[in-house]
Design brief:
By secondary structure, this protein is α/β, with parallel strands linked by helices. It folds into three domains: 3-172, P-loop containing nucleotide triphosphate hydrolases (Rossmann fold); 188-361, P-loop containing nucleotide triphosphate hydrolases (Rossmann fold); 368-446, GMP Synthetase, Chain A, domain 3, CATH 3.30.300. 34% of the residues lie in helices and 20% in strands. The protein contains 13 helices and 15 strands. The protein has helices spanning 3-10, 28-36, 82-95, 111-123, 162-172, 177-185, 202-210, 256-271, 287-298, 315-328, 348-361, 368-381, 419-432, and strands at 17-21, 54-60, 63-69, 98-104, 127-132, 152-153, 190-195, 228-234, 237-243, 274-280, 302-308, 337-339, 394-401, 406-411, 441-446. Strands 2-3-1-4-5-6 form a six-stranded mixed beta sheet, sandwiched between helices. It has a six-stranded mixed beta sheet with strand order 8-9-7-10-11-12, sandwiched between helices. A three-stranded mixed beta sheet has the order 13-14-15, covered by helices on one side. Strand 4, helix 4 and strand 5 form a beta-alpha-beta unit.
Length: 456
């Protein structure tokens, strides 16, 4: 695991969104690829190559940022795809904290650019005018007429102007200092996200916990369009509850609301300590449920599964459902499963208590001495398999973070460690310290113990 991945996993603040918009063929996808450092967007030399939105996460000054690429706006009245592209751009704008308006220095400012500029100006959000293909000095001058401030000349294909662009973006990121101060002053006992496919009863469950109709409840799938926070008094403090919009497969996200919901759900995961995966007992479990569970754990949430609407199941039907659930979850380790009927409150109090406990487990810390005693015992109980006769020896471990619990292990040959042994270590650690449902992060580094001389 890279240092960058560790930072992403440990970061629990709201992740800002940067959207790139502009007319077709100005180099938005090339700019997207340049910013994230990999070729993720399809790049072509004709308008309309990017039809759907594409988003990814990258690090900007040690802070995660979601970057969104969009289809081109305008110049496509003859193209039946253009209305769909316009809708997708509107979706990106709806969730963006910062907009990069990309224009083309080689073609100059056009009437379509002026229309887009007017649309963006009315949005009233932080905006950066980026003039791409500006290899020639002075080629950005034409774009002052758009009235969007100082144009920033770049060449995405050659990398010119990118340090200046990244520096500007960094200064425009939302300031989280006030949010952090407020959270420190009123820190919840736990932050819990309720996740699941549309219409499985997420809002009904949160209403049952709150004891009032905080969420709109409807039989129409997709009633919840945003991630909504509710504060629930709990013992000597409060719990933050986040209801997320129902998640469909990527291929079925066909409108603005679905796209916005998915991005905001990921943001909700990043702010939560634990996630309750709600399943519909009457519908069974599908592949998308498994993907959503995996996504929650990838984002560092402790995971609990709750099966809802059990009043609609006979005992025989529940037995079949449980067998299928155990089979589908066979690759996931120690995920607790609860049975509830949210509409009448059955089992919901026990589920809330367990979700709070899971949140606390995800904040687990351990002393260095105890950690290394466990590491020695784990190796003694199950010796590290060796490749080519080489001995693999793990020497020292230290904790690097929580939410989820993260550790560095120093060993002589990290590249020789097999995935099966890494899974064994995770399972051993989880079992030894009663971390049911908690994702464990180990990174393996070569070299000697860097702290060996610290105590001398």
């Amino acid at each position: 695991m890279s240092e960058e991945e560790v930072i992403v996993q440990q970061y629990k603040g709201r992740v800002p969104v940067v959207a790139i918009v502009g007319r077709p063929n100005v180099g938005k996808s090339t700019l997207f690829n340049r910013l994230i450092g990999i070729r993720k967007a399809i790049v072509g030399d004709r308008p309309g190559v990017t039809v759907d939105r594409l988003e990814t996460q990258f690090m900007l000054d040690s802070r995660p940022v979601i970057l969104v690429d969009t289809g081109g706006i305008g110049e496509g009245t003859h193209d039946i795809m253009q209305p769909a592209i316009d809708v997708q751009v509107d979706a990106a704008l709806e969730i963006a904290d910062i907009v990069i308006f990309a224009v083309d220095a080689q073609s100059g400012s056009t009437s379509v650019d002026a229309v887009i500029a007017d649309k963006l100006r009315r949005q009233g959000m932080p905006l950066l005018l980026v003039v791409n293909k500006a290899e020639r000095i002075g080629s950005a001058t034409d774009f002052y007429a758009l009235g969007l401030g100082e144009p920033l000349p770049v060449s995405a294909i050659h990398g010119q102007g990118m340090p200046e662009l990244l520096a500007e973006l960094s200064t425009m990121l939302p300031d989280t200092a006030d949010e952090q101060d407020q959270e420190e002053a009123e820190k919840p006992l736990a932050s819990i996200a309720v996740i699941g496919r549309p219409n499985v009863g997420k809002s009904t469950l949160i209403n049952a916990w709150l004891g009032r109709d905080r969420m709109v409840v409807s039989e129409v799938a997709g009633t919840t369009r945003d991630a909504i926070d509710s504060m629930l008094p709990y013992k000597q403090g409060f719990v933050r509850l986040v209801d997320t919009a129902g998640q469909r497969k990527h291929g079925r996200i066909s409108d603005v609301i679905e796209f916005v919901a998915r991005v905001k759900a990921v943001q909700a995961f990043r702010m939560a300590d634990a996630a309750v995966m709600l399943l519909d007992g009457a519908e069974g479990i599908v592949e998308q449920d498994m993907r959503l569970m995996q996504l929650a754990q990838d984002e560092g949430c402790a995971l609990i599964v709750a099966v809802n609407k059990l009043d609609l199941l006979s005992e025989q039907e529940w037995k079949y459902f449980a067998e299928r659930l155990n089979f589908r979850m066979r690759a996931m380790t120690d995920i607790p499963v609860f049975r509830v009927t949210a509409i009448n409150g059955k089992g919901v109090k026990q589920l809330l208590n367990e979700a709070v406990n899971a949140s606390r487990r995800n904040q687990f810390t351990i002393g260095t001495g105890e950690l290394n005693r466990w590491l020695a015992a784990a190796q003694e109980a199950h010796h590290v398999p060796s490749d080519d006769g080489s001995m693999v020896r793990m020497k020292y471990a230290s904790q690097t973070g929580t939410n989820p619990p993260s550790f560095k292990i120093f060993c002589n040959r990290p590249g020789k460690l097999k995935p099966t042994y890494k899974r064994y270590l995770e399972q051993s650690f989880r079992k030894s310290f009663d971390l049911t449902g908690v994702p464990i992060r180990f990174s393996f580094l070569g070299g000697n113990n860097p702290y060996a001389d610290k105590g001398k």
